[in-house]
Amino acid sequence: MRGVTFSGDRRLDTVTVPDPTPGPGEVVLEMKASGMCGSDLKFYRAQAGGSAALGLPATDGPVIAGHEPCGIVAAVGPGVPAAEARVGARVMVHHYTGCGVCAHCRTGWSQLCQETPIKVYGVTAHGGHAPYLKVPARTLVPLDDALSFAAGAAISCGTGTAWGALVRLGLTGQDTIAIYGQGPVGLSATQLAVAMGARVIALDISPTRLERARAFGAAAVINPAQDDPLEAIRELTHGRWADCALETSSAPSARVATVRSVKVWGRACYVGEGGEVTLDVSAHLMRRQVTLIGSWTFSTVGQAECARFIAERGIAVDDLFTHRWTLDQAEEAYRLFDAQTEGKGVFLM
């Protein structure tokens, strides 16, 4: 089969590898959708050298990209219980695997495995930008018939990450939440928070993204390039500030504003990857009793809960996608995505 790889320096290659065959405990999926995630861009933009250039474990040759996989079980290896995987089942993939037996792995948090280097599908092991994908059966999460394969791909990373952060924040319908960044993760958080009954204040420097946030139910939108976000949030909350805030953009200024825009006893959460932030610990955190949370993706349990919530509430996750592509269009797709002016893209097979 042929798959898409990141070569670095904003280049893609297509590689040919043997069709996968499942071993003990493994399954092979026929891919139906593979999402494009903002974190892909660091590999797309990296200097040539692949994973090693970013300090990741060495791999045996090029790795097929795509860590938002969704499809149908095509083959099941020896030792896989029928309750865990059956041919024809619609499934998402929790795109990490660890030792499989430690406390983190056994509770669905393979990315936190401390016993062995984890595999990240689409980064250090072949991912979903190909016709087939081989993974351990324990990484599978059922996809409700009410959800499209594209929605399943979104839940497999970006939307699931938003869900995980909102759960960590303990968001309720009584809360006002400021969401910094309205890219795919931020827009997902806006959709989910609105469905939870919260009042959403959406922030982004892109007018197009702010328009989409408003269409997704945001009660107010702020462009920090035009208005002081702290003053705007103070006015929108009548001087009370937000109950909680979520930062998805990784911008240092947004990270500081996220913490400063919450009330006394407020909660702030970072999900944007990489970079640094400088805070006045006493003024911004301690003397306001603010809780600051780092949230990294989600567990298999959280992924299933997110999918169930979306299916039961009829949330239009498919509306996140502004572009649908075939794998033959990968170069054009990533060129457009790299500009970060559009919404989310997905490859459909």
Automatic annotation (TrEMBL):
<protein>
    <submittedName>
        <fullName>Alcohol dehydrogenase Zn-binding</fullName>
    </submittedName>
</protein>
<feature type="compositionally biased region" description="Low complexity">
    <location>
        <begin position="14"/>
        <end position="23"/>
    </location>
</feature>
<dbReference type="Pfam" id="PF00107">
    <property type="entry name" value="ADH_zinc_N"/>
</dbReference>
<dbReference type="InterPro" id="IPR020843">
    <property type="entry name" value="ER"/>
</dbReference>
<comment type="similarity">
    <text>Belongs to the zinc-containing alcohol dehydrogenase family.</text>
</comment>
<dbReference type="Pfam" id="PF08240">
    <property type="entry name" value="ADH_N"/>
</dbReference>
<dbReference type="GO" id="GO:0016616">
    <property type="term" value="F:oxidoreductase activity, acting on the CH-OH group of donors, NAD or NADP as acceptor"/>
</dbReference>
<feature type="region of interest" description="Disordered">
    <location>
        <begin position="1"/>
        <end position="23"/>
    </location>
</feature>
<dbReference type="InterPro" id="IPR002328">
    <property type="entry name" value="ADH_Zn_CS"/>
</dbReference>
<dbReference type="InterPro" id="IPR013154">
    <property type="entry name" value="ADH-like_N"/>
</dbReference>
<keyword id="KW-0560">Oxidoreductase</keyword>
<dbReference type="InterPro" id="IPR050129">
    <property type="entry name" value="Zn_alcohol_dh"/>
</dbReference>
<dbReference type="GO" id="GO:0008270">
    <property type="term" value="F:zinc ion binding"/>
</dbReference>
<keyword id="KW-0862">Zinc</keyword>
<feature type="domain" description="Enoyl reductase (ER)">
    <location>
        <begin position="10"/>
        <end position="347"/>
    </location>
</feature>
<dbReference type="InterPro" id="IPR013149">
    <property type="entry name" value="ADH-like_C"/>
</dbReference>
<dbReference type="InterPro" id="IPR036291">
    <property type="entry name" value="NAD(P)-bd_dom_sf"/>
</dbReference>
<dbReference type="InterPro" id="IPR011032">
    <property type="entry name" value="GroES-like_sf"/>
</dbReference>
<keyword id="KW-0479">Metal-binding</keyword>
